[in-house]
Fold this protein.
Amino acid sequence: MQKIIEITDLEMPELEIYTRYTENQLRTYYEPRGGIFIAESPKVVERALDAGIRPLSFLMEKKHVQGEAKELIVRCPDTPVYTAEPEVLAGLTGFPMTRGMLAAMVRPEIPSVEEICRGARRIAVLANIENPTNAGAVFRSAAALGIDGVIFTGDCTDPLYRRSIRVSMGTVFQLPWTILKGKKTEDLIELLHANGFSTAALALTQDSISIDDPVLKKEEKLAIILGNEGDGLPEQVMKESDYTVLIPMFHGVDSLNAAAAAAIAFWELR
């Protein structure tokens, strides 16, 4: 039976996960067992459900109950659906819900680095990418351009932050990924080599080769490593990588946004 609950009180405790918890607090909501995250828009929620992720509740505009979210609600008959008119929801969340729907969902268990590498030919490694928008955009490009999996270093932004998920258009639920925990970014190369991957670090160094160098496409298994938006990659990562790779540029431009560079690299090295 569907649990459609009209919001009459903005102080309902069931709504606190949408209104009072920060994203970091949501990550530890069920400690020590894990946390939850917020997904936004019917399309993103659909992709999360398709990936087997369990919803705790939905929050949506009334029109979506029999509209865009109807099939999602039918798929989750035991999940409470909190609903109200747009102006009420704006007062509740503090911003207009332009996509009309939020869902609180249980964070999935993530695979190991070894599981990500197993059977893959091209993986992306994000090292200290701090901007959730960049992380989401990189993920969307990775999914669209044939990357088999994504590894985040522990100092990256959370791939399940709401903005990351939204910018990725839910592809974060379609491509396997993991977080490198308990290791330094500098330990990356040894770990990737141990799993059979050659490594290509995107970096502007004197010994960098062009991204269209044929030697790169000959690599059976290649990890493409992207660094921080401002500082790039640690010196040791560049030193120990099998290749440092640059994207030729013109008109005096010396670098690209991390998301733009990733899209070019994924296409060229696929």
